[in-house]
Structures are given as C-alpha cells and as structure tokens.
Amino acid sequence: VQRHEGEAGYDEDLLARIAAGSQPALAELIARHGRRLRIFAARFLGNHSDAEEVAQEVFIAVWKQAVRFDSEKGRATTWLYRMATNRCIDWKRRRALRSFVGLDDMDVAADEPDAEARTGARQELAVVRQGISQLPARQRMALLLRAVADLDTSAIAEAMGSSVGSAEQLLVRARRSLRDYLSGGHKEGR
Amino acid sequence: MTRDEFEENRRRFGDDFNAWPAPYRQQGRDFLEGRAGAAGGEDKALDRLVLEAAAAETDEQALTRKVLARIDEDRARAPFWSWAWLSPAAMAASVVAVLAAATAAGYTLGADEGSLESDLIAFAIGAPELAGDDLPGIGEEGEL
Q1: In whole angstroms, what is the distance from residue A71 CA to residue A75 CA?
Q2: Is the pLDDT of residue B92 over 60?
Q3: Any A CB within 8 A of B47 CB
Q4: ipTM of the complex in this document
Q5: CA dist list (Å): A49 to A53, A55, A113, B6, B60
Q6: For A33, phi and psi rounded to 5 degrees?
Q7: Average pLDDT value over all residues in chain A
Q8: How far is B119 from chain A (nearest CA, A)?
Q9: Among A7, A58, A162, B25, whose CB has the most other CB atoms within 10 angstroms?
C-alpha cells in the first residue's frame, strides 16, 4: 500500500522507490528534507558552502544506499540525519586538517559577520546565531537536531550514535549555555 | 501555591512531597508539574528561536539539480571505476592477474637477458637451464 504525503511512513515509501531507481522520488525527498538538512549543516559547520556540499553528499549517499535502509530498525528521518551528522563531523575534520597543513586558513565557525550581531533589524536572531556557533560541537549538534531537524531525544541519540541519557544531557547543557549567552553572557565575553 | 509556600512546606514536611499531608501533597504536585510544564514551554520557545535564527534562504530545486547531475556523472564514470572493484572476489582476481603477469614477465626477461646478470635472474626465477655453465654441477662439487 502506497502512502500519501503527510502520512506516517511516507518517507520510508520514498526510500523504497529510490532503492528501486526512482529519481523523482529522490527529488521529492530533497524537497521534503533538503532545506532543514542544509540549515542544520550550515549552523553546525558555520559555513553555507560547506553545508551545500554536505547536503549534496547526503542525498547522493541516499541514492546509493537506499537499498540498505531498514524501516524495521528506525525512521527514515533519523537515518537521513545520521548520515548528515557523520558527514558534518568528517567535513569538520577535513577542514581542520586542511587548516593545519596550511591549505585552508578559514575559521570554520566564522562566516557569521560579527557586525551583524551589533546592527540591523535582526539583531536578536544574529545574537542567537552567535550563541549557537559558540556551543561545544556535540551540544550544538544535539540542539540543532532538536530545533531544526525536529527529532525527538531517542532519534537524536540514534543520529549521534549516543545513549538517550547522553543526548538528554547534551540538550539540557546546550539550552542552559545558550540561555546564559542570551541573558548577557555574550556582552561579558566582548 | 507560590514558590515561598512550597519551600516552607518542604522545610516543614521534607523534600518528598508524596509524604506531605494530603491537602498539601496535591498542591505540591501541581506546583512542580506547573514548573515542569513552564520549563518545557521555555525549552520549546528556545527551540523555536533557534530554528528561526538558523533559517536561511535555500533553493531545493538547485540542490536537486546538482545532486542528480552528480549521480549522472558517477554513472558515466561507472564503466571505468566501480565500487564492485573493491569486492573480495574482484580483489582476489586482480591479485592473481598481477602475479601471473609478473611471473610471465619474469620468465620472458630471464630467457631473453643472456648477457646482463642473466645468471642471477635465472637463479631467482628458478629456470633450470640457467643453473648455467659457469656454476659447478652437483657431480663436480662431489669430485672436489
């Protein structure tokens, strides 16, 4: 039985069609998840062009590996973000290595213009972005998986390859750190 | 129940509000659940703020075009290179082919190279005729 858009299991159906070689199904999956996945990667990596590359790699991997997806073991969204988190971590390591050997001197978390945090109509959101970028990597990832990808704690744990308790702790710490930052910590830091 | 009343009752009856006298027990539970609900609401509000702050202009159609183009490029390259080459069977076949080619090349080189280090090459590859005229035979050695 084929499910319709909005129904539970629709993404799993799309993956089954992708596994059978349907490019329109892949295009639909990108339309459904591409935006959030790219925003997640951009905020985790702090760089939009890297996020674009990561998003492309994730969907190419989906195309190649959709046959391996097992809906008995988890949801399609969790599988998708598991791939995204792995690629983000790989990408960050690659950038760090390139930076170390001098091929790349760009700060991966620094494409947020600092001036944006001080001026402009969207000042508050810019401060929030600054706060997110300053969280430790795993806290940032957990918070983005919750807020941007809309995953619940068990799905966050699965996507990050950690226990549910650990994911909960990361979320609690991330929110506390971000609240501290927003309630004035960012001013003291300057 | 206010926070002060809750704290006062905690001092009087202990930390576990389930052990408090009945009229206070339910009030204590309501107070804590209200706080938990408020905290949950605060978390949701913060999550919404994070989502709003993280949002950026994206173009899913462009992303789709790029992904499909890269898939087509991979397909075009497939005759020359495929992940199937990394399968154990393909790897074993490749090793056998390389060894066979190396052996054949060794014999050819050993047979043709009469002048240059031919004895050493022949000895290395084990060609019988290359035991050579210059090396003493078993019989000769026995006669010494």
Answers
A1: 6
A2: yes
A3: yes
A4: 0.76
A5: 6, 10, 15, 53, 14
A6: -120, -10
A7: 85
A8: 49
A9: A58
